[in-house]
Each structure stands twice: as structure tokens, then as C-alpha cells.
Amino acid sequence: MDRMDFSIKIARKVGLYLMEHWGNAENVRQKSSFQDLVSDCDKQAQKMIVQKIKDHFPDDAILAEEGLFEKGDRMWIIDPIDGTMNYVHGLPSFAIGIAYVEKEQVILGVAHDPVLNETYYAIKGQGAYKNGERINVSENSLLKDSIGNTGFYTDFTGIFISAIEKKVRRVRMTGSAILAGAYVACGRFDFFIAKRANSWDVAPLFVLVPEAGGIVTDLSGNQAHLNTGNFLFSNGLLHDQVLEVIREVNKKVRK
């Protein structure tokens, strides 16, 4: 079976399941803190994806957010609900993330938004798409014309917004890393900053954003890897300008 076709179909199937329980998830409980939630829907969504992978690709390893950490040269990375906080509160920013990796290189990535019924997908070397149409990053080369996204980080976000808010049109926080990165790929956002992100939070973006013409680095501008943890995804044209603001912020944080 074709891995891309498989990934799209299972992501959409899981999306239909999630929509049935959106805002009404059962057994919502905390993981590492009261701000890090998991529900029965997370568990069931992951189970649906994992079972299908094991049925069709039994020799592949699986790394999934809710407690499955296998290793192998051929591996699937899964986030059953990226944006669980939004999901359990009935907010419309969450996504299913599926990526396939060979020897630590992301070969394909899928991000499915069940609310808007938008499926973003890319295969390395073959471009990026949304619901069958080719997508590209924005052509904005000036910060003053840009809109960006960042997660909420107590030691970064407030200082970063203060440093950049008068240089950009606006900075948003969607609450879903996978959706924020997909929006960079299709030109809705010009850049997205992720700190302390796990590989399942960003894996599909490692192919979606570059195949749409964008760039991903760590927050120092160096080559990013799935385990880097800190990432800047952008349209490429604004990358150095955003990095410069990040450097200013880091200097203030260290003082």
C-alpha cells in the first residue's frame, strides 16, 4: 500500500471520530501538569492509527505521543491530537499529525484539520499540497507585512512579542504546532516559532514547510533535527529577520 495514500485516509478517518467528541472528550486528565492534558479521545485516536500501521506495515517502528516509543530505521511519528487543550475546550484549532521517517529523514508528512476539513501533505521532493492543490509559502519579505505564530513559553513569549509587535502586523497563538506550521506552508503565516517541542509536535512540518518553499532551522539558525526541540519555520524570506529578533530576546533573557 502507498504510504501517502494510507496516511491521508487514516488521518481523515480519525478526524471524523474526533469531530464526534469535539468539546465533549471523556476522562480528561493531566499528564506532566494541569496545563498538559490527555483524554480518552487521544488514546483512541492513537490506537486507530497504530493498529492500521501494524496491519499494513508490520515491520515499521512507531513513535507516538501517548506512550509508544519504538525505534527503527523506518518509523512512523504520530500525534493523535495536536492541540488537546483546544480540543477538549471545543476550540477549533487542533490537528492529527502523521509522519514517516527513514534513517532520521522525514519522507512524508500529513497534517489534517478536521474542523475545516483541510488535509496538508507532502512527500520529500514532490511538493506540498492541501486537499489536492499545490501550496506555497508566502512571498512577504518585510516584517511589516508579516503575521507570525508562537507558542506560549513563560521565559520567551512575552519578551518576544514586546520585541517584535511593532515590526509585524500581528503575532498569533493557535495552540497547535502542526496547524501553525501547516499555515506557514500555505502562506497564512509567514513564520512560526516552537520551543521545547517534541518530535511528534513538528515531524510533518519537516517536509511540509520545505516542500512548500520554506525553511526550518533551530532558533540559532543552525540545521534543525527532529530532536532539536526549538524551531523556526518560515517562508525563508523573513527567516534572518526573525532570527535577529530572537537573538535580541535571548540576550534580554540571559541578563
Q: Would you report the number of β strands?
A: 15
For the largest sheet, list the strands in their spatial order. 4-3-5-6-7-8-9-10
Mean pLDDT, nearest integer?
A: 91
According to CATH, the homologous superfamily of the largest domain is Fructose-1,6-Bisphosphatase, subunit A, domain 1
The CATH class designation of the largest domain is Alpha Beta
Percent of residues in β-strands? 25-35%
Q: What string gives the helices and strands in order?
A: HEEHEEEHEEEEEEHEHEHHEEH
Output the number of helix runs.
8
What can be said about the biggest beta sheet? 8 strands, mixed
Describe the structure.
The protein is α+β, with helices and mostly antiparallel strands and 255 residues long. The chain has two domains: 3-134, 2-Layer Sandwich (Fructose-1,6-Bisphosphatase, Chain A, domain 1); 143-254, D-Maltodextrin-Binding Protein, domain 2, CATH 3.40.190. Helices cover 33% and strands 25% of the residues. The protein is built from eight helices and 15 strands. The strands form three sheets. The protein has an eight-stranded mixed sheet, with helices on both faces. A five-stranded mixed sheet has the order 12-11-13-15-14, sandwiched between helices. Helix 1 (3-21) runs antiparallel to helix 2 (40-56), helix 4 packs across helix 8 and helix 5 (177-185) packs parallel to helix 7 (205-211). The chain is globular, with a radius of gyration of 17 Å. The termini are far apart. The model has no long low-confidence stretch (mean pLDDT 91).
